[in-house]
Design a protein that fits this description.
By secondary structure, this protein is of the alpha/beta class. The chain folds into two domains: 2-166 and 336-365, Quinone Oxidoreductase, Chain A, domain 1; 172-308, NAD(P)-binding Rossmann-like Domain (Rossmann fold, 3-Layer(aba) Sandwich). Helices cover 27% and strands 27% of the residues. It contains twelve helices and 19 strands. Strands 4, 6, 7, 10, 11, 18 and 19 form a seven-stranded mixed beta sheet that branches. A six-stranded mixed beta sheet has the order 2-1-5-9-8-3, covered by helices on one side. Strand 13 (211-216), helix 7 (219-227) and strand 14 (232-235) form a beta-alpha-beta unit. Helix 5 (168-179) packs across helix 6. It is globular. The termini are close together. The relative contact order is 0.16.
Length: 367
């Protein structure tokens, strides 16, 4: 079967690999669609340290074709969305309501490309094991993963669209709905309107935000932001974004600012654009050697809050299901997000388009 495999820094391509049978508590999924995310490119470029070789893909949807022993929640034929941030529901963290930090499925295991038992399910033709990015490896015709990593959805859901819920939509919308806790009438500033930022905007809109400021350098992205719910568009290359947000809020500042690029300077702008007791949520992935400078006295005087955000910011499986409900009810626009689809053999073009900001979201579709 075909899969996109990274073999070295900036070395990747389509290979024929084998996927081993599912073990206890695992399922085999025939992939229908897989979105491309900057995190995938971070593996290609080496910005996200991941053991190689590695099968790409962590934003996908498909149909279960085989179940391993002890699997009781799923059956062959179930349509599922994959979940890179699962919760077992049984460990100490899950029992404390902190499933985002589940002990049974730690993030470092996913980054290492390993399944829950510490082994691999993907194998190259010469017998060499290949990791599965975020323990999913779903940029492939098939994958085998733990049952905690799939969320069952209605068989009528368009998986070509719904696949993007499992990363870009979940992460962006979760930053607004869960971590940012947007309330009706709140003002929200979104710095960076790529695949994640556009969904911060959608999450803010769904939550009833009164003002949604979209900040970006690209007129195309700003147009998309407006279509998805932004009330004010700010080109950060032509305008002082902080000054604009202050003016539009009566010099108060936004209740919530979300940084989606991973640039420390932009994180500082987001912080500066918030009001007293406002919150800044950092979603963008910055290099680990970079810091953000904040004035300690200003923190004391303003009571502002700065926090990080990953995945859904909550129980990701439950949140994915709720987002699919929003999509089916017409409250969440996935059709606009998926602006182009590709065959797996077109992955080089898909990655080039990702880097050139051609799409809101590009999706690889499988037969």
């Amino acid at each position: 079967m075909k899969a996109v495999v990274v073999t070295g820094i900036n070395e990747f391509g389509v290979e024929d690999i084998e996927v081993l049978p599912p073990q206890a508590s695992e399922v085999r999924v025939k992939m229908k669609a897989c979105g491309l995310c900057m995190s995938d490119h971070h593996v290609i470029s080496g910005a996200m340290p991941t053991p190689l070789p590695c099968v790409l893909g962590h934003e996908g949807a498909g149909v279960i074709t085989e179940v391993g022993e002890r699997v009781t929640r799923f059956a062959e034929g179930d349509a599922v969305i994959l979940n890179f941030s699962p919760a077992c529901g049984k460990c100490d963290m899950c029992e404390r309501g902190l499933g985002l930090y589940c002990s049974a499925h730690p993030t470092d295991m996913g980054l290492a490309g390993l399944q829950a038992d510490g082994s691999h399910r993907h194998q190259r033709p010469d017998g060499e094991a290949a990791g599965a990015f975020m323990a999913l490896g779903c940029m492939a015709e098939e994958t085998v993963i733990h049952e905690d990593r799939v969320v069952k959805v209605d068989s009528g859901v368009d998986l070509t669209r719904a696949c993007v819920v499992s990363c870009g939509v979940m992460t962006g919308a979760g930053a607004a709905i869960n971590t940012g806790a947007v309330r009706p009438g709140d003002s929200v500033a979104v710095f960076g309107c790529g695949g994640v930022g556009l969904n911060v905007i959608q999450g803010a809109r769904i939550s009833g935000a009164g003002q949604i400021f979209a900040v970006d350098l690209s007129p195309t992205k700003l147009e998309l932001a407006q279509k998805l719910g932004a009330t004010h568009l700010i080109n950060g290359g032509e305008q002082d974004a902080v000054a604009q947000i202050m003016a539009l809020t009566g010099d108060m500042g936004a209740d919530l600012a979300v940084e989606c690029v991973g640039a420390p300077a932009l994180m500082r702008q987001a912080y500066d654009s918030t009001r007293k007791l406002g919150m800044t949520v950092v979603v963008g992935v910055a290099p680990p050697d970079q810091d953000v400078a904040l004035n300690a006295f200003d923190l004391l005087l303003t009571g502002k809050c700065v926090c990080g955000h990953k995945a859904s910011g909550a129980h990701s499986g439950q949140f994915i299901a709720s987002l699919v409900d929003h999509y089916q009810a017409g409250r969440l626009d996935l059709d606009t997000l998926v602006s182009r689809t590709y065959a797996i053999d077109e992955v080089q073009q898909a990655v080039d388009d990702l880097l050139n900001n051609v799409n809101a979201r590009g999706v690889i579709v499988f037969d």
